[in-house]
Amino acid sequence: MRFSKVDFSITPYVEGVTLPVSKPNPQFLSEIGEEGMRELLDRFYMKLYESPIAHLFPSDREEMKTAAQHSADFFIQICGGPAYFNRNRGAPQMRKRHAPFAITPEARLHWLVLFEEALMPLLEEQRCSETNLQSFWRYLDTFSQWMVNSRS
Questions:
Q1: The whole model's pTM is what?
Q2: CA 114 to CA 98: how far, in whole Å?
Q3: What is the CATH number of the domain that holds 142?
Q4: 87 to each of 32, 37, 81, 98, 107, how far by Cα in Å?
Q5: Is the residue at 63 inside a domain?
Q6: 4 has pLDDT over 70
Q7: Distance from CA of residue 50 to its chain's centroid?
Q8: What are the two backbone dihedrals, phi and then psi, of residue 79, each rounded to the nearest 5 degrees?
Q9: What is the rounded CA–CA span in Å between residue 123 and residue 23?
Q10: How far is CA 130 from CA 19, 90, 99, 117, in A?
Q11: CA distances (Å), 120 to each of 63, 90, 137, in order?
């Protein structure tokens, strides 16, 4: 498999525009598995922990790992897996959950760049198809726009 066609472009944020979001292909989860999703989100959250947007996340490393697992539950569910998030945390309502945090367009960009870095081992290890990874990336790109709630 070659992954040269995966497009990690980021759609520019436009205030007041809510783009329609499509869930990722369920095959993405089938290919990487639940454990692979948990590893991905742990890798991603450890990048966030050291990032310019770390202030938006728990400052305790163990709390950050717990947040990563809650996020993994969400992404497993959104990719067609078991409804772990709903069972453990209630309905996602992600905009409401993120409302207490000032998420700027710049923070969104940091978040996406770090997510791209966290996804790279999946490419290097050829753990998923480019089609399914592209579907997951498109979801992240649109989802991240929905989370922006502050200009600065």
A1: 0.92
A2: 18
A3: 1.10.490.10
A4: 22, 18, 13, 19, 29
A5: yes
A6: no
A7: 17
A8: -90, 15
A9: 20
A10: 23, 32, 33, 15
A11: 25, 31, 12
Output the pLDDT for position 138: 97
pLDDT computed for residue 79 by the predictor: 97
Tell me the per-residue pLDDT of 86-114, one tens digit each, with 9 for 90 and over.
898 888 888 888 888 999 999 999 999 99
Q: Total structural domains in the chain?
A: 1
Q: Is residue 17 part of a domain?
A: no
For the stretch 64-72, contacts whose Cβ atoms lie closer than 8 Å and that sit 24 or more positions apart, written own/partner, are 68/38, 68/41, 68/42, 68/44, 69/38, 69/41, 69/42, 71/41, 71/44, 71/45, 72/37, 72/38, 72/40, 72/41, 72/42
Where in the sequence is the domain holding 99, given as residue range(s)? 26-147
- Does a structural domain hold residue 119? yes
The answer to whether residue 13 is domain-embedded is no
Query: pLDDT tens, 49-82?
Result: 999 999 999 999 999 999 999 999 999 999 999 9
